[in-house]
Amino acid sequence: MQRALHILCAALMLFACHSHAATPDNSGSSEVIVGARDTAAYMPLLRDRRVAVLANHTAMYDTERHIVDMMHAEGIDVVGIFAPEHGFRGSVEAGAKIEDGTDTKTGIRILSLYDGNTQRPSDAVMRSFDVLVVDMQDVGLRFYTYYISMLRMIEACADFGAEVVVLDRPNPNGHYVDGPILDMKYKSGVGWLPIPVVHGMTMGEIATMAIGEGWTKPATLTVVKCQGYDHTTHYDLPIAPSPNLATQHSIYLYPTTCLFEGTVLSMGRGTESPFEIYGHPNLTGYDFAFTPAPNAGSAKPPHMGKVCYGKDLRDIPNEEIWGNGIDLSYIIEAYHNLGLGNDFFTPMFEKLIGVAWVREMIIEGCTAQEIEARWTSEVAEFKEQRRKYLLYSE
């Protein structure tokens, strides 16, 4: 009950304008101020212009007001709100279609970018605004879809001459880079750029690099930086970025445990601890068990109603997760335990990990260390490639 209450509180907590970010050894903290608070840097770009906003529930200006509410109160002409995956209010489960609607607080129309059909807004919609403001809390993973919605909108803005203003927020996984570079033949809605699984960049840095590298068309871009943040900061999110990432611990485990979504296992959807546990009805030798059931974060979770045996990762210290980075040992152990061969995987696995050779090496019997060693040089090359686009020191 106590854990469930903790998760509920984390999911409902509003974004504070000032947040504390621990140093890597947790010996101290510094004040981080998100880009939305630096109104002097962006409000002059919005006044007397038609403004659209790409945002969700994480785009809080202060403890009381969403960025849209603040702009509306300040007389900014907000003509539309674009909603990414999980919806404008962040309550819709992963992958579910988001419908158009109206924001009940302001009366502003909400236009879905995740309705199953829309790749970009219509020409008429694109002509209805002059500036796009982007404000969403990302978690720093190639398969987390908020940055893809942003890049699609940047492309559309480039075509129609609209400016883009990104109100930056810290990356909770921004202190390291890990995983293979996406083989672009696996480009999908969960992987859009030739970057590692853990890219270590903020939304503002991704936008800057995507334009600089020619991965997207060159729109006019302004990034309003965070203050008091750099890439050594371990930043605790005061509001859950999506329904199934309800704790900071799950966000740290997510680079590893999300890969189970490309296998036959459950990664804890339909429980109080998604991405912090995993299991399968036929895993043997494990005492820990859970039974997925429909909940607000998952209407039909994998292995719904079945007892799954596996591992509980909730007590692993954060420092150990940071040290291990992407840890394939869990998947390799489960693969050998079930004895399903290639049927252990689904086509989603390549979309998530980004390459074919990881599955191949697991089937060949390679260790996690052997597989991870293969992407080490890619990571080093990418870190050099992205260096000139970083807005914060490493």
General description of the model:
It is a single chain. With 394 residues, the protein is of the alpha/beta class. It folds into 2 domains: 28-237, Rossmann fold; 248-363, no CATH class. Helices cover 29% and strands 14% of the residues. The chain has 13 helices and 13 strands. The protein has helices spanning 2-12, 39-46, 67-73, 123-126, 146-160, 203-212, 248-257, 318-324, 329-338, 348-353, 357-363, 368-374, 376-386; strands at 18-22, 29-33, 50-55, 77-83, 101-102, 109-112, 131-135, 163-167, 221-224, 234-235, 277-280, 288-290, 308-312. The protein has a 7-stranded mixed sheet with strand order 5-6-4-3-7-8-9, sandwiched between helices. A 3-stranded antiparallel sheet has the order 2-1-10, with no helix packed on it. The two termini are 40 Å apart. 48% of the residues are buried.
